[in-house]
Write a structure and sequence with these properties.
binds zinc ion, 0% strand, 12 helices, mainly alpha
């Protein structure tokens, strides 16, 4: 069919470019390339973010690599993850907005009417800080619930099934999980009357920090690791050690995990990543369908090569 000559020709071009290889599935590559073109036309900001952030984090991972592993754009599932990045920013974000709009009239009456007025009278920086703190607290508990409620874990396990962590790994996310996470942090901020620009900037910050937390970067900050989330902090959240699947839920401030008894900051990096749920490495739709696969089981991943 059409794909075979395309793949052969493309691999010929790729072979002449040092450090470049195509994904194993031509359909994944075509899908990701098509999505990228559509995003470049309809949402150039999303396409530009993927290129700029991808370029920046690829350089960072080459500068201070944690483990000897393939770059994010060359490993299995890279094209699916890149496609998921675009889908997440456009379709899932739009769907989460609809969910928030439907829930707001239902949950809104529970918020005392004086509270949005009080918060609205604060200076801009205080409103932004309040939005950040609300997002962090709600993000902590929605993330923890995603681990502790079996129904939610079936979707969140897609994110934890990644055997390699790098800047592209956070795009390995089930849309239901992504919508739950976005709605559970956006809805409280909006109900408190904190402005949409505050919501957008808080989410942009959390999104970029999310890429850093998963990056293959050897970075330690000493005592500051209690205050600022780092790759070391979040890599432990992804450990394949079944005895540690209940730690480091915070998105930005690890001290929150200390308050709620889930902080884990030992001296060493984790030995391997993943969980005991089988999720396809490639194919966006196959991943989306995986929570309904029976039985949802697998084996604990093997130990990776140690830090460089
Ligand atoms: Zn998690
Ligand atoms: Zn993660």
């Amino acid at each position: 069919m059409l794909v075979r000559p395309f793949r052969a020709a493309s691999r010929g071009v790729a072979a002449r470019l040092p450090g470049v290889s195509l994904p194993r599935s031509p359909w994944a590559f075509l899908g990701a390339a098509g999505l990228f073109v559509v995003a470049a036309i309809l949402r150039p900001d999303v396409a530009l973010a993927l290129v700029v952030l991808g370029g920046g984090f690829t350089l960072l991972e080459r500068w201070r690599p944690l483990r000897p592993q393939p770059p994010a754009y060359r490993r299995e599932g890279a094209a699916t993850d890149a496609g998921a990045f675009v889908i997440d920013q456009v379709l899932v974000a739009a769907a989460a907005t609809v969910v928030v709009a439907l829930l707001a009239p239902v949950v809104g009456p529970l918020v005392p009417s004086a509270l949005p007025e009080e918060l609205g009278s604060l200076p801009g920086w205080a409103r932004w800080l309040t939005a950040f703190c609300v997002a962090e607290m709600c993000g902590y508990w929605s993330h923890r619930l995603s681990h502790e409620v079996p129904f939610l874990w079936r979707f969140h396990a897609v994110h934890h099934s990644a055997p390699q962590l790098d800047w592209l790994a956070p795009s390995r996310w089930h849309p239901v999980d992504a919508m739950f996470s976005a709605a559970s942090t956006t809805l409280p901020i909006l109900l408190l009357g904190l402005s949409p620009p505050a919501v957008v900037s808080v989410f942009a910050l959390r999104r970029i920090q999310g890429l850093l937390l998963h990056a293959n970067v050897n970075c330690r900050l000493g005592p500051l690791e209690w205050i600022v989330a780092t790759p070391f902090f979040h890599h432990w959240h992804h450990t394949a050690d079944p005895g540690r699947w209940d730690c480091n839920y915070a998105g930005s401030v690890p001290a929150l995990d200390w308050v709620f008894g889930s902080l884990h900051l030992p001296d060493e990096w984790p030995q391997s990543y993943g969980c005991d749920v089988e999720v396809p490495a490639t194919g966006y739709l196959a991943r989306v369908a995986s929570p309904w696969a029976e039985p949802p089981g697998g084996t604990v991943p093997e130990v990776l090569p140690g830090p460089a």
